[in-house]
Amino acid sequence: MKAFRTAPVILGLTTLAACGGGGSDAVPSGGNSQLGDAGDPGDAASEPAPSFDAASEAADDGTTATDAPNTPDAGADQQAPEAGAELSGYIGSGCTTAADCPFDGATCLTDGFPNGLCTQACTDTCPDQSGQPVTFCGKAADLPEAGSSFDGLCLSRCDFGYYPDSGCRAGYGCVKIERPFDSTVVKFACLPNRTSELSQCYYDLAARGVGFEPTVMADESPDGMPQLVCHVQDPLYLKSPVHGVQLRTSAGTATARVLASCPMAGAVVSTIDDVAPLGVVGFRHMGTYNCRVIAGTTELSQHSFGAAIDIAGFDFDDGHLWTVLDDWEHDTAAPQTDAGKFLYAAAHRWFDAHYWNIILTPNYNADHDDHFHVDLTQGSHFLGFKDGRYIGPAPYAD
Fold it and tell me: Average pLDDT of 122-141?
């Protein structure tokens, strides 16, 4: 049995976001009344949020696939051998001649392209390659440097895992560009001589040393509810591992990347930084984004904003696994097992450090027996409990 190690109070980035938590009752007396999704009884018990790893872009058609499998697209599960090192030999890389671009259909563009650009003509999609950023077929008309010979050109998407400073190599900026012949498909890509269009949140996250790919998501609505709009603030794909901790599904399958709002990704990083010193090497979750309403209501779940995650458990460096389902101790303010103490203390640390604005534990209701629902609902600060089953004071000194 792994010995329980007490963590200090770790203060970190405070962000504001929210997701679709569980629990059908209002906040008990003494709790914060601004519960966000805390009234959602179906969050994990009946409809877990999909994990949204790299496959969630489906055919890159500008929509999101809520039932996407955990199968990464080519290149999505690869980090650069050395972050920040100049990549070579593929789409988006520098070149002097086409000989520097050893792939089928390669062209080396030099006029107006700093240090050259390996690319190829396209009209729809582009091939990806392991160890390189994911690609995108961009509208050539938005690239006057390319002249009029192309309908579309294959470009490198912005990726802070490969280029930690800006998401692109020197001389290129991260900007939105359409696909040729389909203006509904828009992505961030690295374009020559451009000023980045990314918000400050992306750069703040990059400064924390994590890999991610900014993305563009079209707003959507739950089925049959066009009056409701699911919108993700500064969406991105957070790449695994995060500071050495592998992102995994609740079943333990490695997750190449997960979709999140930028603020929520920052909260995930803070959470991982909190538990990693205690031997955690795997962060198990049940998902993030899902455009839907809170069960039994017409109110959007915070999962609809990519601003929450359901945490299922943790893998440790000695091979041990502790999960919320198997190891949470109910109806007590003094858990007895090492696993129970770890989970209990972790929930309180995250709450006290304001990593998350809402934390719903199994003590909130039975729908959370297998996960912590955590979100960043603005204006809230709530640690979930129900019918007097409060999980007690923090088990460490302030």
Answer: 95
> Is the pLDDT assigned to residue 70 strictly greater than 60?
no
Residue 358 domain-assigned (yes or no)? yes
Q: Is residue 25 part of a domain?
A: no
Residue 212 predicted with pLDDT over 90: yes
Q: What average pLDDT does range 69-92 have in this prediction? A: 57
What's the confidence (pLDDT) of residue 83? Answer: 54
Q: What is the pTM of this model?
A: 0.79
Alpha helices in the chain (DSSP H): 200-206, 262-275, 324-327, 338-352
| 321 vs 393, residue with greater confidence | 321
Q: Are residues 226 and 352 in the same domain?
A: yes
Domain that holds residue 223: 217-233+242-255+263-383
224 Cβ neighbours under 8 A, 6+ residues apart: none
Task: Please tell me whether residues 165 and 224 are part of one structural domain.
Answer: no
Cα–Cα dist 20/41, whole Å? 9
Are 187 and 129 within 8 A, CB to CB? no
166-205 burial by CB neighbour count: b if 16+ within 10 A, else e? bbbbebbbbbebbbbeeeebbbbbbbbebebebeebbeeb
Looking at residues 44-70, what average pLDDT do you find? 35
Lowest mean per-residue pLDDT among 215-219, 366-370, 387-391: 387-391
Judgement on whether residues 191 and 251 belong to the same structural domain of the protein: no
By DSSP bridging, strand 308-316 and strand 107-109 are unpaired
Total number of domains in the chain: 2
Residue 374 backbone phi and psi in degrees, to 5:
-125, 135
Give the span between the Cα atoms of 354 and 320, in whole angstroms: 28
The verdict on 359 and 223 lying in the same domain is yes
Regarding whether 222 and 191 lie in a shared domain, the answer is no
What is the rounded distance in angstroms from the CA atom of residue 32 to the CA atom of residue 166? 39
Q: Are residues 130 and 276 in the same domain?
A: no
CA distance 123 to 118: 17
| 3-class DSSP assignment, residue 100 | helix
Residues 222 and 369 in one domain: yes
Residue at 144 is within a domain: yes
Q: Provide, for the chain, the percentages of residues in helix, strand and coil under a 3-state DSSP scheme, each rounded to the nearest 5.
A: 15, 20, 60
CA distance 265 to 94: 31
Rounded-to-integer distance, Cα 100 and Cα 93, Å = 9
Is the domain of 357 the same as that of 246?
A: yes
